[in-house]
Structure formats: structure tokens, C-alpha cells
Amino acid sequence: MNLILLALHDIPSIQLRHLADLSGASSVEQIATDTWRLRQARPHDDISAYCFEHRIDYGFVAADKTLADFGLVVMDMDSTLISIECIDEIADMQGLKPEVAAITESAMRGEIDFAESLRRRVALLEGLHESALQRVYDERLQLNPGAEVMLAKLKKHGIKTLLVSGGFLFFTERLKPRLGLDYTHANTLEISDGRLTGRVLGEILDANGKAEWLIKIREQLGLEASQVIAMGDGANDLKMMARAGVSIAYHAKPVVREQASYALNFTGLDGLAKLFGN
Q1: CA-CA distance, 262 to 250, in Å (whole number)?
Q2: Which of the two ends of the chain, N or C, has the fewest CB atoms closer than 10 A to its terminal CB?
Q3: How many domains does the chain divide into?
């Protein structure tokens, strides 16, 4: 195994030596400005806490594993591909961001059933003019760092992308052509006479729905689970992530970090490509 280290800063040689000693690595090499590779490394119980303390993301990766081994990357949208929770920003147009954000945070920690939390949050948006959605997209929606680099790397290797969100179709359908995504799916807000009704149309896309969409697209592409990477940040991403060969927690809640194959806690989304850039 190679131990891959990612950081937004230069890792001091003393820290590299310590990690090499813990992992029994045969050599240490810097392979990019923000990426180091420790060859023939093995896991050690102290590596995780040490890396977290020093703001280093890490992953043990088979020496022969590369991006070319994958065929599909499935991503959550809010707080994963993009830096905001869209529903919280929509609620801000209603002067209700604190109330909605508190429900969002509780749902992402897994304390409230996602579908129920979404109904409660959307109900608070009743009466808001639909133009608020466009304002959020134009004025507040930003990609997380490294998103475009990651997507370019995936496209270079012919890897398909699925954006599957418990958020709203209004945003996923605009991001799809903008970023060249292959598949998207999300929830639909009901609008009547130009205003939000406070309801979601159809069946809510929850944790089970995300997992089902991953399986659906994987089977369409004729891929094995081992050829799929899933990335998310909240508890409603866990079922989706469990159906992928590799799961990545991106700046995620503790419950997600604990169950993921890898965690990117400090670096950007391009860390996905760097992990498998052997």
C-alpha cells in the first residue's frame, strides 16, 4: 500500500518522518506541491489522530490503484459539490435562515429523519416568490475548492458523474450543463402562481433514494460496485456511500467520516484525483 498525504501547507520533514516511522514506509516522496507518497506503508492506530491534529488528509491506496480503475463518481450537492446548503439560503430570503439551518444541521447529523426534516423546512418557505431560487443560484451558489479540477480529471479518464441530491432540481439542472455532469436527480419544489407552496412534488429523494440512483446508473453502465466512488458529507449520504466500492467523506459530519473509506477534512475536492493519482 501507498500512504498518500494531502495538505494545503508544506508538511515539515519531522512530521513526514514520524508518519513514515508509524507506517513502516520504505520511502517518502513529494509527488506534487500538496501531495506526498509513502511507499510500502501499513496502517497504524495513531496515524488518523496525528494527521487530523496537523491538518493533513491521508489515505492508504493500493500501489496499482488509479483513477482509470473507476467508471462512475456519485456526488452529493449541498456542502459537497457546492459550498452552501441551498435550502438554508432560500430560507434567508424569507428571514428564516436560523430556523431552517438548525433543522438542516440536525438532519445532516442523523438526528432527524431526512424526509421529515425536508417537509418541515420546505413548509417554512410557503409564499416565497420563485425568483428567490434564481437569486440563490446567481448570488450565493459557489463550487467547493477543487471541484472543476476534479471534474476535469474524471472526464479525462472517461469516468461518468452522477449528482444526486436531497436538495432541489432547480439547482441540479442548472449545474448539469454548466459542469458537464452526465446524470442528475433531486427533489422538485411545488410552485403555484409564481410562489412556493411549501410542498415537495412526488416522492422525496432521501437516503434510500440516493442509494437506489447509484445502483440504477451503475447497472446502466455495466459497472461493478468496486468501480464506483461515492462522495458526501451528511448522514443521508451514508446508504449511497455504502453501495460504492470507495466512499469519500468531504468536510463531513463525524458520523460520515467514521464510516467512509477516506475523509477529505481540509483539502479540496481535487483530493479525490490525488488519492488515486499513482
Answers
A1: 9
A2: C
A3: 1
Taking residues 19-35, report their average pLDDT. Answer: 96
**Interatomic CA distance for residues 205 and 168, integer angstroms:** 10
DSSP 8-state assignment for residue 117: H
235-259 residue pLDDT tens = 999 999 999 999 999 999 999 999 9
User: Residues 57, 78, 88, 233: which is the catalytic one?
Assistant: 78
Q: Let me know if residue 243 belongs to a domain.
A: no
Q: Give a yes or no: residue 118 inside a domain.
A: no
CA triple 118-160-206, angle to 5 deg: 15
Q: What is the 3-state secondary structure (H, E, C) of 127-191?
A: CCECHHHHHHHHHCCCECCCHHHHHHHHHHCCCEEEEEEEEEHHHHHHHHHHHCCCEEEEEEEEE
Kindly report the CATH number assigned to the domain that includes residue 9: 3.30.70
Rg (CA), the chain: 20
Active site residue 78: yes
Catalytic residue among 34, 57, 76, 237: 76
Cross-strand bridge partners of residue 249: 232, 263
pTM reported for the whole predicted model: 0.94
Q: Note whether residue 117 is domain-resident.
A: no
Residue 17 lies in a domain: yes
pLDDT in tens, 76-125: 999 999 999 999 999 998 899 999 999 988 888 888 888 889 999 999 99
Mapped onto helix, strand or coil, the DSSP state of residue 231 is strand
